[in-house]
Each structure stands twice: as structure tokens, then as C-alpha cells.
């Protein structure tokens, strides 16, 4: 069971990080020039969380994620771990962004909301399951 959770959380996370990467480009090019940076960041986080919910919903609906709360929280937690690892490995080691700049993005006291988005990410699979359960079943 744990191997399946790790595998499926990693696979689903690649969809999530791909969208988050595109969201980051969209935020920099479209949103930030038109609005305050904090609002642009908040909208970006909301877009990623909604997308994560859709991804989780699809994986649960197709039977790729278990439906227990503990398993879904583990998947959300793994998404956070994968994201933090990606942030540091990709942006620092491959893109050359200084560690101080990466760490600053986690600092809520400086107006950055990324860490709040990460905290919310833990619960995204549970939200996906809630939406699935709330849908009316289709009659044959």
C-alpha cells in the first residue's frame, strides 16, 4: 500500500508541478505587471490549489488514490515534500538562485504566501475526495 501511495503521489505531483511551473510564468508575465505582488501570488496559489484538487479528484475517481483520510493526508504531505525538494534542487542547483532568495519565499513576515500554500496543499486530496463524494451518482 505505501509503495502505491508513493508511486501515485509522485506521478500525480508531476502533473501538479507542471501546472505550477506554468502558473509561475503566467503570474510573472500577466498578473504581476497588473496588480500588487501579494495579490498576484495569492491568485497563483489559488490556481495551483484548485488544479491540485482537480488532479486529486481524478486520481481518486479512477481508483489510483486510496480514499482513507490518512492516505490522502500522506499524499498531500508527500506533495509538499516533493515541492520543497524541487524548489531547492531545481532553483538552487540548476537555475542558480541563491538559497537566501529561495528561503525568503517561505517567509510570511515578508509578505510571501508560499508557505501558506504549501500548508494548504496537505489537505488538497481530502478536498478532492469531498467533492467526489458530494457528486450525485449517475443512474444507469
Question: What do you see in this structure?
Answer:
The chain has 6 helices and no strands. It has 140 residues and is an all-alpha fold. It has one domain. α1 runs antiparallel to α2. The radius of gyration is 16 Å and the shape is globular. The two termini are 32 Å apart.
What descriptive keywords fit this protein?
140 residues; mainly alpha; 6 helices; 76% helix
Element layout with pairings:
Blueprint: H1 2-31, H2 37-61, H3 69-94, H4 99-104, H5 114-121, H6 124-134
Helix pairs in contact: 1-2, 1-3, 2-5, 2-6
Number of helices: 6
> Which range does the strand content fall in?
under 5%
The number of strands is 0
Radius of gyration: 16 Å
Q: How does the helix and strand content classify structurally?
A: mainly alpha
Number of domains: 1
What is the N-to-C order of secondary-structure elements (H for helix, E for strand)? HHHHHH
